[in-house]
Protein: VOC domain-containing protein
Organism: Caenibius tardaugens NBRC 16725
Amino acid sequence: MSNPTGDFIWYELMTTDPDGAAAFYGPVVGWTIGRADPAAGDLDYRMIGRSDGGHAGGVLGLTDAMCEGGAHPCWLGYIHVADVDAAASAITAKGGKVMMPATDIAVGRIAMVTDPQGAPFYLMTPIPPPGMEDTRSDVFSVDQPQHIRWNELSTTDPDAAVAFYTSQFGWAQEGQMDMGDMGAYRFIQHDGVGLGAIMPKMPEMPVSLWSYYIGVDDINRAAETVAQLGGRILFGPMEIPGGEFALNGVDPQGAAFGLVGPGRK
């Protein structure tokens, strides 16, 4: 894969009801979430299809055993690394934790880890299909609907988080926005592209966590659809720098998500 180390190359919704997730995100975002992928074996794993024919990520159906082990509905991002085992070791050396040890799957090697403040994410070294070694993941886009457009970390220690991610993945941190009593909203970049931001965790958030903002074609239409289909809007839609709008919500199964896009003129 031609993505540089440190890119977000995949996003995954873990949910107790994949069919319910398909019925929700389809109308809200425009995605198509099909049936379980036979290549995943006993797992209920489904690909998220975009209307342009590409993929936006995957959906993992949580089993009772997974939930009993502590899993719950949420979105997780996958960060590209050259060597999953080495990256996991480096993360634990800096105070992070390994939640799922390095494992080989059909499309590569993965591990689930947390940063030192406890925010979880995946590491991945993908194996492209033969003849497609130069394939580049496009699940993240700064401006396109039906892609993840913004990656936002809410953390108990923003200074430590900036130091951790810049040292582990080659990210940069340039620029910030003053949020008053809420602290600084610090912008993060990778390979010259704005990835998102790191901010202080708000008191109502129980733990440090990454939030992912999905691009939509019309934030007002999307917000109305969220409410109609049993989701909850926590904040927004609110105008953001550049003139677009964003909101934070929870899907019917309990996974938190963000949306970003233009408003009606």
The mean pLDDT is 93. Residues 18-29 form the longest helix (12 residues).
